[in-house]
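Q: Got a minute? One more chain.
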Amino acid sequence: MSASRRSGTTDELGPDEPDPERDGPDGADLLAALLDGMDAALCAFDADGVVTHWNREAERILGWTAAEAVGRRGFAGWAVRTADAEDVETRLMTAMQAPGRQVHEFALLTKDGGRVLVRTQSAAVHGPDGKPAGVYCAFSEVHTQIDLERSIALSEALFEDASWGVVLVDADLRPAVVNAHAARALGTGRTAVLGRPLGDLLSQGVEELESALTHVLAEGAPPAPAEMWVSVRTAEGEKRRCWRSGFLRLASPLAEEPVPLGVGWLFQDVTEAKQTEQEAALLRFRTNQLHRAARAAAECEDPGEAATVHLDFSLAGFADHALIDRVAGGPVADGDRDGDGPPMRLVRAADTPSGAPGPSLLVGKAELPVWYTEGHPALQCVERAGSVRASAGVADAERAREWALARQWPGDAVHALCAVLRSRGRTLGVVTFLRGAGRSQFERADAVYAEDVAVRIAAALDLAGLAGPAGER
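A: Always. Here it is, folded:
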């Protein structure tokens, strides 16, 4: 049964008229196919209120077939309760005289006697003379319409007011839509980022992000958010950020089989929280190391061995090499030295092996001073009685090796931190921690930890008398 009522057919075809059996569908068949293919329910009335069109979606919602609906006058007695029929018909037919579309909500009856609340959009249909010839009415269940409106509202809110970044990435892994929050996080404008490779926006973390997007396109959304560290290129330079990211694969709702349109990428900047978490974890680890070192050192009969125990425990996760230098001639009390005296000399007391890993060893029994040049970080540390940091910077490998060897350190050292050894108001020497090229420079928090270790080493050295004759009394 056609979804529309035909006005009639001719008995013969003229010589110039196409044969519908041979050349394809006529206009009525094409109209019926278009109406039946619509996602929205649609019906139409002529000027007298008689139903002229009724598509398959209308049949699905109400249960009335096109054969049962087309030709009826209005909805009274079958699709609408008799008590409501006059009001419903009036609201629908007024669309013939009103400009634009009219939106209404009312209850319709299903064929099995149930009631369905629908939202309608009706508008006039004009004839060849330009006068209203009827009304068409598109309707859908209210809950379906509300779901659609909520989806649209959610989409608009995400791309305007969301407090986290939202980026739609196409199948080529290029941003297609970016909300304001994401644009600020990427350090650019909303339109400037569109269509650009992610490598233009991020200097680090691009491979990990693109790998995640590719996985989502192929396999679907991951079961949990992922935390990714990236470096964002901005006008002020590169900024290291941690983004907690969620991914959704986007597929076309119009295709019979899922066709990937891209990936929805939602992220939130958690850099400060992650840094706080990392700092807390590092503090707990270092506190535990100090505690374990104190317990192990307490079991050493030789205080000198206790000093090396503290040195060994401090290296875990902190430095690659460490060494202890004591002041030649014994500890120096505050005020015992003046600027006109001979330069201070240091004697190596203990160090870690520079080759294969192993425990620190006590050395320097020959009492030979270490040949430190003027301005050496260890000498500055002793003179100032405070921590000193030094680094080879961005020098190439050969220059960095020359820098380390010139300071009497292992050739792979790139960063150094010197902490003074103080006990009973006297300077006993200096402990130096060294890092290779695979580690970052020492920070202020590292200096605080080194100073805590230095206090324990100084106490052990003072007790052992390794600092000179004064310590043996």
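A: Confidence is low (pLDDT under 50) at residues 1-18, 466-473.
Q: Perfect, thanks.
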